[in-house]
C-alpha cells in the first residue's frame, strides 16, 4: 500500500513536469516567432537611424565651413536630446 501512494505521487510529479515542459516549449516557439517578425522591422529602424545620423554629421561638416547660426541652433537641439529606448 505504501508503494502505491509513492508511485501515485511520483506519477503526479512526472505529469506535472511534462505539462511544464510542453508549456515552456510552446512559449519558446511563440517568442521565437515574435522575434523573427520583429527583427526585419528593427533592422529597418536601425538603418534609418544610421542614415539620419549620417545626415546630421554631413550637415555638421557643412556648418563647420558655412557657419550658419540657424543650422548651429538646429544641430544643438538635435545633439542635446538623449537616446530613448
Taking pLDDT < 50 over at least 5 consecutive residues as the criterion, the unreliable ranges are none
Q: How much β-strand is present in the residues?
A: under 5%
The assigned structural class equals: mainly alpha
Helix amount: over 70%
Number of separate domains:
1
The dominant shape is: rod-shaped
SSE run = HH
Note the total helix count: 2
| Number of DSSP strand runs | 0
This entry's quaternary arrangement is single chain
- Main sheet? none
Would you tell me the overall average pLDDT? Answer: 90
Structure description:
This protein has 85 residues and is mostly helical. The chain has one domain. 89% of the residues lie in helices and 0% in strands. It has two helices and no strands. α1 runs antiparallel to α2 (69-79). It starts with a helix and ends in a 6-residue tail after the last helix.
Amino acid at each position: 500500500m505504501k508503494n502505491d501512494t509513492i508511485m501515485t505521487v511520483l506519477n503526479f510529479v512526472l505529469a506535472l513536469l511534462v505539462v511544464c515542459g510542453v508549456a515552456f516549449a510552446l512559449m519558446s516557439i511563440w517568442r521565437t516567432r515574435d522575434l523573427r517578425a520583429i527583427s526585419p522591422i528593427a533592422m529597418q529602424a536601425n538603418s534609418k537611424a544610421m542614415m539620419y545620423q549620417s545626415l546630421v554629421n554631413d550637415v555638421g561638416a557643412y556648418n563647420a565651413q558655412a557657419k550658419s547660426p540657424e543650422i548651429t541652433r538646429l544641430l544643438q537641439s538635435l545633439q542635446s536630446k538623449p537616446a530613448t529606448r
